[in-house]
Each structure stands twice: as structure tokens, then as C-alpha cells.
Please model this.
Amino acid sequence: MRSVVLLLSMSMLCILSSTIYFQTLYGQNHKTIINSAISANLTESTVENSIPPQSTSSSSDKLKVVSSFYPIYEFVKKVGGDKIDSLVLIPTGLEPHDFEPTINQIQAANSADALVFNGLGFETWIDKINTKNKIDASNSINASYIDNRTKSFDPHIWLDPVFAKKETENIRDGLIKIDPNNRDYYSQNAKIFINELDTLDKTIRADLKSCKKHDFVAFHNAFSYFAKRYGLNQHTITTTGPEEEIKPQRLVEIIQLAKNLGLHVIYSEELIDPRYALAVAQEIPDAKVLVLSPIEGLTKDEQSKGIGYVDKMNENIQNLKQGLECSQ
Ligand SMILES: [Zn+2]
Model:
């Protein structure tokens, strides 16, 4: 076992020192994604509608609504439409797990009419913000999994379209409570988006109906609710969250598991470095790395193309169909 770990460590070192290897195995696009994610982290670059580092004022008399991070921001925009000024607290190109808001971001959120958040402990900083109205999108959702890192409920409910519908309803109800004059508008918008989520749910059920495999290896534990909804088994490279330092021993375990299950696709994410998934795939004959997005943000490329939650879920399903060996 020790020699396997040593070999693996050496192969990882090769991966760490070779961008050419990234390009040939993973593709040019993904190298670009890594670069943009790193650049976003270094500069804390703001995307359109993220809270600017300094400014807090808004001249509009629309309802000013701040959402905590990407998918919630999209759900809020779908429901609020042009009746609200919508901002996002965590810049959309950043991985949100270990985010901490700056004083300026806290002040900007405090001055908004409402703050919408996912809840279930995902936004560990939520109590630092005192917006006059807070909408908890996870309200009354029956979360059943426990997150290894926080020892609280697993917060990744948005990846289950049925729970995403409930989050949309909670956002609708929260906006109506604050702004009852636009009740019909918010209700109609929510209905349209919920219909899209219903269609997505039906598509996933149809697409995953005839797969040879039911196990997949994701990067972090974002897919517990998704897997339960669609009868799949999630395994993960990290045992806590995306910020965890992964030891070679863990990679050895996941390689062995993937071999035992006969898996040939290892999943990575668009906002994290794929080298761990690559290190696992390299040790499995005929294996490759694809993206299975936890939809915790968007790359700059995706933002500029207007790609959203349903598009990302459909991409996930196409990539899952390869790993699960489903009929096309
Ligand atoms: Zn996550």
C-alpha cells in the first residue's frame, strides 16, 4: 500500500508541474476555466450585479434584493423580474464554501430591502447581516443529510429540482410579504419557473431510466439530495468540502472504489482545480474526467453566454449519462 501511495504522489507531482498534461487530458477549455477561477479569487473580481466593494447606494425605487450566492440569485431574478433590483453578495465566479463577506459587503446587504439566502448553514456568516427582511429559501424543506464539515444539515438542496421548486415558492412568498402590491406578478413568474423545473425533473427521470450504473464519483458532497431523488449513489473525492486538503491516501481509496465499481468517469467541478480528479482518472484504465457542477457559481464564460441553472443541470445530466452508461 505504501508503494502505491508513493507512486501516486509522484504522479500527482507530475500533474502539478505540467500544464501540457492538463491540456491533453482535460482539454483547453478546462485550463481556461482554471485560470479564470484563479484570477477571480485573486482579484475578487465582481460580476455584473454583484455587490461592489465600496458602493452601497441605489437611486432606483424598486425593491432592492440581495441574494447570497449564485443559484439563489437566479431563482430570485426569475421571480422578482423587473420589479426588483437584484444583487448577489458572493461574486458569481467564486467558489462560495469558505467565503467571508467584507465590511462593505455587509453594509451593502444591510441597506437592502431583503436578503435571500439558501439556509441550512451554508451561509455561515448570515448572522453578521441585519437586513430588515431575510428570506430563508430552505424554509420547511425536509433536509435529511448531515454535512461532514459543519455537522449540520447538508445545504445542497438546490441541486434537487424538486427542492429547487420549494425554494422558488419560498422566495415568491417572501417577496409577496414585503411587496404585496406585486403579488400577481411574482406568482406568475414563479409559476413559469416552476414549470421549467418540472420539465427538468421529468427529463432527468427519463434520461437516467436505463443506465447500467448507479454510482458516481463527484468532487465534493453536493449531490446527496440529487442522488436520493433519482436513485443514485454518490461517492466523493473530498470527505468534507471543496476547501479540504486531500491526502494521497484518500485518492488511493477512491481509485480502488472506482475500480471495484467499474467506473470510467471521474467528476470534477468548474470552479475548482481538477488535478485531484485527474490524478484518480489517471490510475484507472480508459477513465476520463468530466464536469459535474454543484452550480455554486458560474465561470465568466458561462456568465457572458447567459447560461443558467437549467442549462447547467442539463449539462450535468449529459455528463452523468456518460459515467452511468445510460442509453443515449
Ligand atoms: Zn458545496
